[in-house]
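Researcher: Next sequence.
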Amino acid sequence: MPPEQGSPLVLLADIGGTNARFALARADEIGPIATLRTTEHEDAGAAIRAFLDRAQLSSPPQTAALACAGPVENGRVQLTNSDWHIDAEQVCSELGFEDVILVNDFASVAWAIPRLRETDLQRIGGGQGLAGAPSVALGPGTGLGVAGFLSNDGEDVVIGGEGGHVSMPCVTDREAAVLADIRKGLGHVSAERLLSGDGLVRLYNTVARLDGLEAPQRSPAEITDTATAEDGALCRAAFDMFCEMLGTVAGDLALTFGARGGVYIAGGIVPKAKEAFANSRFRQRFEAKGRFRDYLAQIPTWIVTHPEPAFLGLMRVLRGTASRP
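Model: Next structure:
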C-alpha cells in the first residue's frame, strides 16, 4: 500500500463483468492490487467498501477513478456483462468520496498507451509503427473492449465506443458454418459473442457439434491450455479459430482507425496465452485484407503484458493529462 503521507491517496478500480480489481495510489505509485469477484458483492459500492475495510486506512481516499466495462454516459454506466449499475454521484454519497470518475475500461487502456514500456509489450509482427499516427487498443476478456488513441499536436485524444459489438465477419467456409450454427441460438452474432471468454467456450462447443465430437465441459483457461487435455485437438481447433477471428477483427479496426501507430491487445485471455497466440495465424489474418495487405504489414501488433494497463490510464486521467469522459 502506498505510504499514508504526501500527495493525496486515491482509489483505482478496473471493474469488469467477472472481476473488480482495486488498488490505492499516490502520485505515480500504485499499491498492491486486490481482486474481488463481482458475483460475490451486491454492487460496486459494496465491493469498494469491502476493499477499503480490508485496507484499514487511518484516512480514506477522497477521490476514486473507476474503469468500467460498459458505455459511460453522464456519470453512469450499466456493465455490459454484469447486472451492476454504477452511478458516480451515488457512490460519492454512499461512501463519502468527494469525486468519483467513471471511464470506459478500454478507454482507460488506450490512455495508457503512451506509458507502456518495451517491457510491458510483446510484439507480434509488423514494423515499428508511425510516430504520431493513431493506435488501437482491444482485448477479449469477459467481453471485448475497443478504443482508439491519437496524439495530435501534443494533445492526446481517446475515441471510446462499443466496437466489440459489431457484427462478427467470417472469412472461411468453416467460419461461415460456425457462425450459421451460432446464429440459430443468438440471432445477431457480435464479435464479442466469439472473441471473449464465453465466446471461446462457444467456439469450442460449436466446433465439436459440427464435427460430431464429444466435448467435455471446459473453461476458457482449459481450452487455451491444451498440453494435458484429452481433447487437445478440439481445444486447439477452437483456440486457433479464436486467434484467426481476432486477427480479422483487429485488421478491420486498424483500417477503420488508420492505426499505423500500432494495435495493442490487452484483456484477460491473450496475455495469459501469449506463446500460443504468437504461434497462431493471428498475424496472417490481420494482414489478409487484399489490396491493403502491404499497408497492414507495416503496422505492429503488440500483446500488452503489463498486469493493469487500465490503472496507468486512470492515473493519467487523475493527473489531468487525459480528458474525462
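Model: The chain has two domains: 10-110+309-319, 118-305. The CA atoms of residues 29 and 191 lie 36 Å apart.
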